[in-house]
Give the backbone structure.
Amino acid sequence: MLLDTFFKWPATIERLRGDVVGEHLDGFLAYMADAGFAPLTLRQYLGGATHFGRWARQVGLALGRVKADDVERFRRHLRRCRCRNGYR
């Protein structure tokens, strides 16, 4: 459970695990950590991943069906994003 090593507050960990992408976050962090990313960078990418998950839910996109054009739609969203806690 990699989230436990990045966040000390149980409420933060619980919130992240309860997010739309929560079940994927430990694997995502493990993959990125194995690739050599620094802890601060991992936290930033984690914010981006949760932002993408919330956006996907808003537009009705199933995470298991994400395609390249969906990622491009998200990139366009980022240009005008006003999401609360939206990581770019």
